[in-house]
Amino acid sequence: FRHNGYVPHTSCFNQTYSLFIPVPIRHLSTQTNQCTLTQTVSFSAGAQSSRVRFIPHAVETEEKPASDPNAESSRRVYIGNIPRTVDNEQLSKLVEEHGAAENVQVMYDKYSGRSRRFGFATMKSVEDANAVIDKLNGTTIEGREVKVNITEKPIASSSSPDLSLLQSEDSAFVDSPYKVYVGNLAKTVTKQMLENLFSEKGKVVSAKVSRVPGTSKSSGFGFVTFSTQEDVEAAILALNNSLLEGQKIRVNKA
User: Fold this and answer.
1) Which residue in 109, 130, 113, 112 sits closest to 121, CA to CA?
2) Where does residue 184 fall: left (phi above 0), alpha (psi -120 to 50 degrees), or beta otherwise?
3) What pLDDT, in 10s, does the model give residues 143-201?
4) Average pLDDT of the chain?
5) Could you tell me where in the chain the CATH 3.30.70.330 domains are found?
6) CA angle 152, 158, 162 (to 5 degrees)
7) Which of 15, 44, 200, 254 has the smallest count of CB within 10 Å of its CB?
8) What pLDDT was estimated at residue 114?
9) What is the pLDDT confidence band of residue 250, given thresholds at 50, 70 and 90?
10) Which CATH code for domain 160-254?
């Protein structure tokens, strides 16, 4: 028994094989959980037991980088239910009263050019983002109560998602025969975003984003209920294939 071209990198253990059956030259590949041997060998009838050396198989494991609590998603604040008169400059001034901002943007309808009554602010730190939420959420601008929250819960604030708020949102959802399905939602879309978007086309009764059971992860779709069939039809006509958070949404009757 002879094995050619075998260069051991380091030894693992010795194991003895007894071979008595004549076989032709072939390629032998032997693999264990820890060791791998691949070589061309020649067997002959009546071969005596041969000793084969195995080499350890080093397995590289890729370590995932630790989640960064200061990642952009943890510093990005949603600001909803703002008046249509508020532009980027005004929203920037409002936000920067409470923290340093990297970017502030009001979202506009690409067809009409009108404000969609919400925007986003990327703050320089999680602390700045939390300060904006604390100071602005629930305040009134031109008679409208502003809704402010983080687009993604900061990882540093909790090791596991707090589901109580999401569960209360689900239980508060008001069903209605005048309901639309909203599909292909980005993971950052919230209940408030749906309400703000669809309220431009009719009187919204309720809205919700469906979640994977037992988690805070979006299922990628949601529902919005209206008070009349006319509002349903107007919403489908105006918002199907429109963009929300960078993704083209699907809207149809539920």
Assistant:
1) 130
2) left
3) 888 888 876 443 333 333 455 555 556 667 888 889 999 999 988 888 889 999 999 88
4) 74
5) 64-158, 160-254
6) 70
7) 44
8) 82
9) very high
10) 3.30.70.330
Residues facing 27 on adjacent strands:
40
Q: Which CATH class is domain 64-158?
A: alpha beta
User: Percentage of the chain surpassing pLDDT 70?
Assistant: 63
pTM of structure: 0.40
What distances in angstroms separate CA 135 from CA 20, 108, 110, 139, one per listed residue? 84, 25, 30, 8
For the chain, give the secondary structure using H, E and C.
Answer: CEECCCCCCCCCCEEEECCCCCCCCEEEEEECCCEEEEEEEECCCCCCCEEEECCECCCCCCCCCCCCCCCHHHHEEEEECCCCCCCHHHHHHHHHCCCCEEEEEEEECCCCCCEEEEEEEEECCHHHHHHHHHHHCCCEECCEECEEEECCCCHHHCCCCCCHHHHHHHHHCCCCCCEEEEECCCCCCCHHHHHHHHCCCCCEEEEEEEECCCCCCEEEEEEEEECCHHHHHHHHHHHCCCEECCEECEEEEC
